[in-house]
């Protein structure tokens, strides 16, 4: 009968050096899982690592494979970038020059895309000025540091004001990029809600030979805030 086994179990927990219920509680569940799963502790460790990676992928960083040549020459087809999903989570939003991954469903197409932020809410974005350069809030932007060699800033003229809470996005390889210019007549006018941004691409992680930290270019540093006085000597657009 079990009547003798029960006090024996209770007596065991009262012996010096034997952990009581509080001492066992921290490890009781892992121990039970380890006993239940094939492989024991090794399997639990594997599951713990998997859970950690899932949390990391969901909330912190996510890999993204470059699907096209629209961001060449900086990002090549097949490159894998690490997307910082926490970049805008604790205040502040995307800035001009950031390379972001976003959900284009209903705006660009049913997929995730990667483009460069050219205009943020309130910005007046024009192409092009008299010298053929992109202009933001009356300031001409020199994009030669990242624009694909031989490409013009745009062969499609546009003159837009970005609504608050939205982004105007262009690919660096302008001749091979379907971006905000191509969706000006679509819902949202080709401008993506900030809430659709998955994160900022901060690193090229693969291939290893192409490992690079993606820094925000200085090209937009002198662009004035929306509504600021027009820079002296800035040219118009044609």
Structure description:
The protein has 238 residues and is an alpha+beta fold. It has two domains: 5-59, no CATH class; 63-220, Umud Fragment, subunit A (Ribbon), CATH 2.10.109.10. It contains three helices and twelve strands. Strands 1, 2, 3, 4, 9, 10, 11 and 12 form an eight-stranded antiparallel beta sheet that branches. The chain has a four-stranded antiparallel beta sheet with strand order 7-6-5-8, with no helix packed on it. Residues 1-30 and 49-59 have low confidence and may be disordered.
Highest-level CATH class of the largest domain? Mainly Beta
Summarize the main sheet.
8 strands, antiparallel
Low-confidence stretches: 1-30, 49-59
- Overall, the morphology is globular
Percent helix, as a range, is: 10-25%
Could you tell me the radius of gyration in angstroms? 27 Å
Distance between the termini: 97 Å
Structure class:
alpha+beta
Please indicate the count of domains: 2
């Amino acid at each position: 009968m079990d009547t003798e086994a029960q006090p024996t179990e209770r007596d065991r927990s009262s012996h010096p050096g034997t952990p009581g219920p509080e001492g066992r509680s921290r490890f009781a569940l892992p121990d039970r899982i380890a006993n239940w799963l094939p492989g024991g502790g090794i399997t639990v460790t594997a599951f713990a690592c998997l859970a950690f990676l899932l949390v990391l992928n969901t909330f912190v960083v996510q890999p993204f494979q470059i699907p096209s040549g629209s961001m060449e020459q900086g990002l090549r087809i097949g490159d894998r970038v690490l997307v910082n999903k926490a970049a805008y989570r604790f205040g502040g939003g995307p800035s001009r020059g950031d390379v972001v991954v976003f959900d284009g469903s209903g705006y660009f197409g049913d997929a995730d895309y990667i483009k460069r932020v050219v205009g943020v809410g309130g910005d007046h974005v024009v192409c092009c000025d008299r010298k053929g350069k992109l202009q933001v809030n009356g300031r001409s932007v020199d994009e030669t540091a990242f624009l694909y060699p031989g490409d013009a800033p745009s062969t499609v003229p546009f003159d837009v004001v970005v609504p608050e809470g939205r982004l105007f996005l262009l690919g660096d390889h302008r001749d091979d990029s379907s971006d905000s210019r191509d969706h000006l007549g679509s819902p949202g006018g080709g401008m993506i809600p900030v809430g659709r941004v998955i994160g900022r691409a901060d690193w090229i992680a693969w291939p290893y030979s192409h490992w690079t930290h993606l820094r925000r270019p200085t090209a937009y540093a002198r662009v004035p805030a929306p509504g600021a006085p027009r820079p002296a000597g800035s040219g118009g657009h044609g």
